[in-house]
Amino acid sequence: MSMFDSVQELLDEHRQLTDQLADPAVHQDQGLARRLGRRFAELNGIVSAHRAWQAASEDLADATELAQEDADFAAEVPRLTEVEAEAAERLRRLLIPRDPDDGRDAILEIKGGEGGEEAALFAGDLLRMYTRYAESRGWKTEILSSTESDLGGYKDVQLAVKRPASSTDPAEGVFAHLKFEGGVHRVQRVPVTESQGRIHTSAAGVLVFPEVDEPEELEIAANELKIDVYRSSGPGGQSVNTTDSAVRITHLPTGIVVAMQNEKSQIQNREAAMRVLRSRLLAHQQEQIDAENAATRHSQVRTMDRSERIRTYNYPENRIADHRTGYKAYNLEAVLDGDLGPVLQSCIEMDEAHRLQALGSSDEA
Question: Do the beta carbons of residue 230 and residue 240 sit within 8 Å?
Fold first, then answer.
C-alpha cells in the first residue's frame, strides 16, 4: 500500500478544521481554538505539498503522453520527472508521523551533575546557550526557578521557552527543536578552581518537557496532590525569606515532585510549580504511549533520560560533538553563544530518517 493512500484522510480533516475554526463558538474556548489551530497549521503544509505533487504528476503524465509526437515535450520529460520526484519526497517527509508535542512551548530543567562547583558553572553556560539560541529565533525565555551556587553557577534552574503566538507551524515549535537536548552534557576544560591547569571532566543533566497550553487541558484532581510550604533558602542553605513562601507539590499517583521558591509570594510559587507539574505529567503520559509502541520509541533520537550522555563540549580543542548523530564541529565558542542550529538540525535529520525507515517498513508490511 502506498504511503500516500492515507493523505485523503488528512485532506478531509483539514476541511473539517477549516469549518470548525470558522465557527465563532470555537474561539470562545481559547484552549480548544489553540489546539485546533496547531493541528490546522500542521495540515496546511501537507495540503500545499499534496497539491504541488498532484500538479507535478499531471504535468509529467501530459508531457510523457505528448512526447511520442512532439520532441519539445520529450525534452521536458527528464526535468519534469525530477520535479515530480522532489515534490513526492517533500510530501513523503511531511507525512512522517510527528511527535504530538512538537508544536508546544517547552520547559527546560538544567542541573549541575558530577563536578561540584564546576558542574554548576557549566549548567550556567548551558542556560546562557539556550537563552541566546531562543533569542536568535525570536522566542521568549523566563526563569521559573533557580538555585545558584557559591561561584555564580546553577545547582539547578528551570527555564520556560515560548515562541510568538503568530507562529503556528509545529515543525518550528520550541519543543520540536529543544526536545533533543534531554540527557547528560559533558564538559572537558580547566576549571576556574583548578590551580594546576589540569583538564577536568564534569557534567550537567538536562530534561525537556512540553508545556501545557491551558490548565484545563490536563486535569489534576485536588486529592492527587500533596502540597507543603516552607521557607526559601539560598546558597549554603541560609534562609532568605521569613515567611513560608516556598512550595513543594507532590503528585501522589506518579510520585512526581516539583518545588518552587524563587517568588516571594506563596501563590506565585504555587502557580509556577503547577505549571511545571503539568508539563512533567504531559511528558509522563507521552512516555507511557511510547512505551506501548516500542517501534516508535526506539526510532526517535529524543530522550529524557538524564543518564544518557548525549554531547561533549571540549574547550581545549574548541570541539562540540553529539554522540547520537556523530555531528562534530570546532566552533564551541559560537555554539555556547547560541549558534545551536546545526547541532539540532543533525538530530532532526536523524530522527526523520528513523521515522522514514519505520514508515517504509510499515508500508512493506
Answer: no
**Residue found under cell 509502541:** 293
pLDDT digits (tens, 9 = 90+) for 226-242: 999 887 765 544 545 55
Looking at the chain, list the stretches that DSSP marks H as alpha helix, in order from N- to C-terminal side. Answer: 7-21, 30-66, 71-94, 117-136, 174-178, 266-292, 294-299, 332-336, 341-364
Q: Which three cell numbers stand for residue 333?
A: 565558542
CB-CB contact of 134 with 181 (8 Å): no
Integer CA distances (angstroms), 28 to 24, 25, 112, in order: 7, 5, 44
Q: Give dist(CA 64, CA 284) in Å, integer.
A: 53
What pLDDT shows up at residue 265?
84
- Alpha-carbon dihedral angle through residues 349, 354, 356, 359, given to the nearest 10 degrees: -160
- Domain coordinates of the chain in residue numbers? 3-95, 106-354
What is the fold of 106-354? Alpha-Beta Plaits (3.30.70)
